């Protein structure tokens, strides 16, 4: 069974949990890197490289462009950071894996992994993912160049970086530990799986290890997470969403809808894609808050951390605001005010224009074109409304698959084949390795694709009741729930044991 921590058992002494480890059978950072407001992968992390005046200067590593073609000798500069403050001779090396956004140097100054590093005397490194942040392997983001963007190339980057840095710094015989949260959590697990001679152990937080084209379970978890605060809350969200879908059928309502949701321009619905984009944008207000509910992300420079499930449900149950539709609009305006947005841009045509711009400094949200490409070429992960057991409507699987075709000329059949290949290559839930711990939060929708039960005694799961995406990675605070504190302690216990092996 998994190492499950809840309020009901939080008063138990930590050491009693060790006996719970036994054999049973399984998504942009680290939550440390950033991601913009774009569709499809909601939303591993929204923090950008916003923290100014970092004490840790960016450094550059000469990386290979194509690790799987020996005849291709092209190279490029990959960004990384280093923190030597806690290193003691003979200590381990901690490697934080970057994900689908800029590597945020705030993580070199704070975060649970640094608490572990201080206790264990570790050298700390963070490597930015190729094609994200300032790590530009190619001149632009053309679809032809994006063929060099994949998890396999990223893992080979990590392997080459680890090998060269170890040789340069005399760390070849040190034990290396990989850390990552969300997609980088998957990379942390797969790095240990595919390069066991280079990495001794991994902490794979909130890691989706099962690729799937359609991921309606994401919104099912959103329903349950909202209901955990107030059982009426998701029902009211559903009523509002259904009401909005009906209103969209009548163009005479568009002017009022534009005012209700403070849109940047008058609502125009010409196609199913237009309505799907509009509906998904509004649903994203709830999806984002649920995913990061009460996470301690302020140190990254993130705004809006005060908006929680409790806040959203208090708005949705406030009858003084009007009917459920009016409350749904109130949530949208609250989120805009919180993030200092003057208006809400829901133009699908503009989104298409932005996402097909191949310039590094194009108008698309940060890393938008790159990450959506990875979902089309490797993972799927499309959070559709195809399940009846969720509160939203109007953005089915076909809406996401059409984007793959429009942006990259990747067909629905090719997406399905790519997802199959990903699971064949990494093993999906059936990971055969050792010394990887899989922490997940019960509120986090991504736990539906993660390891929430022990695969073996040496591949343990830690399922943390009442916490969300990557919660265990963020800095500890005095009002953390006890089960989160225990989870962090248990991860440290495992690292201690594994580093002795």
TrEMBL record:
Top-level taxon in the UniProt lineage: Eukaryota
GO biological process, one term: proteolysis
SUPFAM superfamilies named in the record: alpha/beta-Hydrolases
Record-level Gene Ontology MF annotations: dipeptidyl-peptidase activity; serine-type exopeptidase activity
Protein's UniProt keywords contain Transmembrane helix: yes
Keywords associated with the record: Glycoprotein, Hydrolase, Membrane, Protease, Signal, Transmembrane, Transmembrane helix
Membrane-crossing residue ranges in chain numbering: 12-33
InterPro entries assigned to the protein according to its UniProt record, in alphabetical order: AB_hydrolase_fold (IPR029058), Peptidase_S28 (IPR008758), Ser_carbopepase_S28_SKS (IPR042269)
Keyword Protease: yes
Family, similarity comment: Belongs to the peptidase S28 family.
Protein name in UniProt: Serine protease 59, putative
Source organism per UniProt: Neolamprologus brichardi
